[in-house]
Design goal:
single chain, alpha/beta, Arginase, Chain A, 8-stranded parallel sheet
């Protein structure tokens, strides 16, 4: 190589060294590597949620994010069909048509991926599928690590998480960490089932303290641990069978601070019912820190066949999305749970779940940073 060529190349390298590698021009006048090869189609690339940057956040406290996506692949607290441990993978796969380039949310007037918030797909929490006592401990410590031992970009506000389930029991460890930050949390619970059942209502000779922890009892546990509000919690989409004509299940649910909206409450009067629910929920919750948890079985099995405990007669996805788009609350966390892809068809369930996660993300960004 001629000396003059070596000097020219060295000069070019030094002049571009301050730029990230993918932004550095190949040579004068030529596009950068990022411009040439930085575009992902929905069907290529490693499937992080919505093509977001990825980091195993549990391995580094240097991870800084305002909103993190975390998978919680756990399903050994289910009482019927298992398989939700594969839910995070399926939801991420179904989210591939989302990206920052075409992420504008028309109802909110923002692109949540190109606004104030820094996003990271934090990967999955490693969870034992063999010992639920260990699994619950792992999830509890992991949420503490990701919420309490991490900083947002301004260093003042705690980051927030959208959790991809996993069965519905994953809500409990998430609420445990949020309680340490915000105090008691108001919960909006989209589900076909109450999930406030006391384990004592289902007595068995074969029982233990650990067997109390299921995807149908985690809200009862959250109430007993004083994690959630006394009287500001809401169920939406309920259509479960109950124990008897004495309505004891509903009475116990009301004592735990819940107001119920059934699936019938929603479809009988259409949009009028939805708007009534929105107004009543806002009045009930006010400015409280709020957690929204969406079990995909709140929707009809025709739209979410890939779930563990299907119940006929559920909500339409558009009804769930409409409610999520209209809630204007201090959303401090959320999850989408009970996606079991082995029972899904053509990614119908996981696509609905990915859209719900997008709506929750948009609401977090739209509301802005919440002071403690």
């Amino acid at each position: 190589m001629k000396l003059i060529d070596f000097v020219a190349i060295t000069s070019l390298v030094l002049s571009t060294a301050s730029f990230p590698l993918e932004q550095q021009p190949l040579s004068n006048g030529l596009p950068s590597l990022g411009e040439m090869w930085g575009e992902d189609w929905p069907f290529d690339g490693i499937p992080t949620f919505a093509h977001l940057n990825h980091s195993k956040c549990l391995l580094s406290r240097d991870s800084i994010y305002d909103i993190g996506i975390v998978g919680v692949p756990f399903d050994t607290a289910t009482t019927y069909r298992s398989g939700a441990r594969f839910g995070p993978r399926a939801i991420r796969g179904a989210s591939q048509r989302q990206n920052s380039l075409r992420g504008f949310n028309t109802r909110a007037g923002i692109n949540p991926y190109k606004n104030w918030a820094t996003f990271i797909d934090c990967g999955d929490i490693p969870i034992s599928p063999m010992d639920n006592s260990i699994a619950l401990k792992q999830m509890t410590l992991a949420f503490e690590e990701l919420l309490i031992n991490r900083k947002s970009t301004d260093g003042k506000h705690p980051p927030k998480l959208i959790a991809l389930g996993g069965d519905h029991s994953i809500t409990l460890p998430h609420l445990r960490s949020l309680k340490q930050i915000y105090g008691k949390i108001a919960v909006i619970h989209f589900d076909a089932h109450l999930d406030t059942w006391s384990p004592k209502g289902y007595p068995s000779y074969w029982s233990s303290n650990q067997s109390d922890f299921t995807h149908g009892s985690m809200l009862w546990m959250a109430r007993n641990e004083e994690l959630i509000s006394d009287d500001s919690n809401v169920h939406i989409g309920i259509r479960t069978r109950i124990s008897g004509e004495d309505w004891k299940d509903f009475e116990d649910d009301s004592r735990q601070g819940w107001k119920r909206y059934s699936a019938d409450d929603i479809w009988l009067d259409g949009r009028a019912s939805l708007d009534i629910i929105i107004n009543e929920v806002h009045e009930r919750i006010g400015d409280m820190p709020t957690f929204i948890t969406v079990d995909v079985d709140c929707m009809d099995p025709g739209f979410t066949p890939g779930t563990g405990t299907i119940e006929p007669g559920g909500m339409l996805p558009r009804e769930v999305i409409y409610l999520l788009r209209k809630f204007d609350l201090n959303l401090v966390g959320g999850d989408v749970v009970e996606v079991a892809p082995s029972f899904d068809h053509a990614e119908v369930t996981s696509t609905n779940a990915a859209q719900i996660a997008y709506e929750l993300i948009t609401s977090m960004v739209k509301k802005g940073k919440i002071d403690i």
